[in-house]
Amino acid sequence: MTGTMLLEARSLTKYYGDHLALDRLDLSVAAGEIICLLGANGAGKTTTLNLFLGFTEPSAGEALVDGRSVASDPAGARSKLGYVAEVVSLYPALTGAENLAFFAELAGKRVDMSERDAILSRLRFPLEQIDRASGGYSKGMRQKLGLAIALMKGAQAILLDEPLSGLDPAAANDLVTVLRETAASGTALLVSTHDIFRAKEVAHRIGIMRHGRLVDMVEPATLSAGELEQLYLTHMAERAA
Known about the structure:
The chain is about 35% helix and about 25% strand. The protein is an alpha/beta fold.
């Protein structure tokens, strides 16, 4: 990828007391690129996302969003950033349309209906469901609405935490396609996941994390699913040793 670097971690480090949760992470995600961070619980994936989001402060190094330092310009960084949690938080009594309008207004944007419907169509969200209460949405629909909220606010980079967890195979395949199409429109995506095989399907690059360190960065197109799994297991075995 040769586009603008929208997400950058520079020697990003985080201690919680004496525990080193993230160890000098160097990482960049370009416009139009999907990077998946793969690793076991405690590998540093969620800490990385939290540092980009400004939910916690780095112990050393810095996180940047479109060149804006999260630590010194948090509002400027957040204005370029979207976040889709593993469980997308919506107001269940509000319709999808009302949730979209509410979160867009929080970001200082008014909803243009034609833009909204174009985004929803691109994300393969069923437009006939947008005026239903969101409490009845499936997880796949909630993930798509979370992406729509991020895109409506004009996010150039989106962080996703386990977006494929708990989806049935058909819904997971659909979301993989949606994520690839979203990146193709110029958005940078940084995805935390445990799912080796879905990571291979969706990512341009996969970063393998272990004990707070980025121990490998691979291009999944150059590896079979079996080779990728063996590489991952080898790194995990090194951790155990």
